[in-house]
Amino acid sequence: MMEDFNPNKIAEAKMKAIKEYRAAKRERDRTERLLEYQLDQTFINLKFNELKMSVEDRKARARTDESVIALRVELEKAQEIMDDKYAELERVITKIEFMLDANATNRQEMKLGSLVT
């Protein structure tokens, strides 16, 4: 993807990695908000349906509701995707840093070579 020193390809790769990471982060955050909303909804429904339940029992039952568990699984998947996109972004940034270091080393070697002759 970034095997040469083409600045346009390097910039495109970095831009793509940043966009993908941010999109994955937004999706993870959205899933997290949905999970909180579903927990609240389930808790409220339990509160009005079974008044003899304690608050802790209603919280526990809300956490173990099928819809809440499904959203927790979705949140974990979204977190994994976000982590993968972040790793790709870090890979691109590291590759750019290596390219800059190699370029700087080449320039220094050329300077030293011209001084010696």
Could you describe the 3D structure shown?
By secondary structure, this protein is mainly α. The chain has one domain (7-116). It is 88% helix and 0% strand. The longest helix is centred in the C-terminal third of the chain and has 51 residues, at 66-116. The mean pLDDT is 86.
Pick out its properties.
single chain; 117 residues; mainly alpha; 88% helix; rod-shaped
Please trace the helix and strand order, writing H or E for each element.
HHH
Total count of domains: 1
**How much of the residues is beta strand, in percent?**
under 5%
Give the helix proportion (percent range).
Answer: over 70%
Shape: rod-shaped
The count of helical stretches stands at 3
Write the layout of secondary structure elements.
Elements: H1 7-49, H2 55-63, H3 66-116
Helix pairs in contact: 1-2, 1-3
Tell me briefly what this model is.
The protein contains 3 helices and no strands. It is mainly alpha-helical.
